[in-house]
Amino acid sequence: MNERYTARVAEDRLSTVLRPVRAGNGFEEALEQILQIVRLGLVAEGERLPSERELADRLGISRVTLREALRVLADQGLVESRRGRYGGTFVRRSPSAEAGAQGTEAHPVDPAGLEDTLLFREVLETGAAGLCAARGLTREETARLRTALDATRESALPDYRRHDTLFHLTLAELAGSPSLTAQYAAVRASLNDLLGRIPLLVRNLEHAQVQHTALTDAVLEGDAEGAREIMREHCAGTAALLRGFLA
């Protein structure tokens, strides 16, 4: 996969989240969208966010408002500003990720909110998997899905959840519904906050990889029912872990 293609895919993913904000809530909505970029891992830890000019243009806000939003994220330790020729705003490791790495989390989880997130995630993901298989993928789309799958296989443990997110987000995008993709991006951001509160379990990740491979095969073979069933089982496994650790 060449660099130009990879850059275009990254650009498309940012377009999934970044959109002009509504009048009256510019600061709040800009903050929400940039938070989604960070929480979804669309810009990885240590990488630079789009320039202030690009972010302001995409969001339809002034650079003053944008800087206020970025200042809040910096105060929360999510981003940092660097000066100089190669400066900009860079993503830092989130506090929830630090807590998850240690297997601890001080804040309780609302059981009803947890169940709502898990149910909505399952509905969106099983639907997306079935749509992908039913509509069939082009050669370029197939390459995108396989590249996302390979990235999860080759990922180092600390970066696994980011690549897992991108794999699932790719499936949502390939379903062909921008509305579905936008809703999935939002629920995945909430899911990642929950996952950040529990430890990474190697056995679980190995099982997830088997399911990812089977899911990709079902999609590429046009097996819509099989794709939905594998995704449903995959979501159920994640849900069981989250309930066990957090409920």
From TrEMBL:
Keyword list, A-Z: DNA-binding, Transcription, Transcription regulation
Gene3D superfamilies: GntR ligand-binding domain-like (1.20.120.530), Winged helix-like DNA-binding domain superfamily/Winged helix DNA-binding domain (1.10.10.10)
Keyword Transcription regulation: yes
GO MF assignments: DNA binding; DNA-binding transcription factor activity
Residue intervals of the HTH gntR-type domain: 24-94
Pfam family, one: GntR
PROSITE patterns: HTH_GNTR, HTH_RRF2_2
Annotated region (Disordered), positions in chain: 89-109
Superkingdom classification of source: Bacteria
InterPro entries: GntR_C (IPR011711), TF_FadR/GntR_C (IPR008920), Tscrpt_reg_HTH_GntR (IPR000524), Tscrpt_reg_Rrf2 (IPR000944), WH-like_DNA-bd_sf (IPR036388), WH_DNA-bd_sf (IPR036390)
Protein name: FadR family transcriptional regulator
Organism: Streptomyces boncukensis
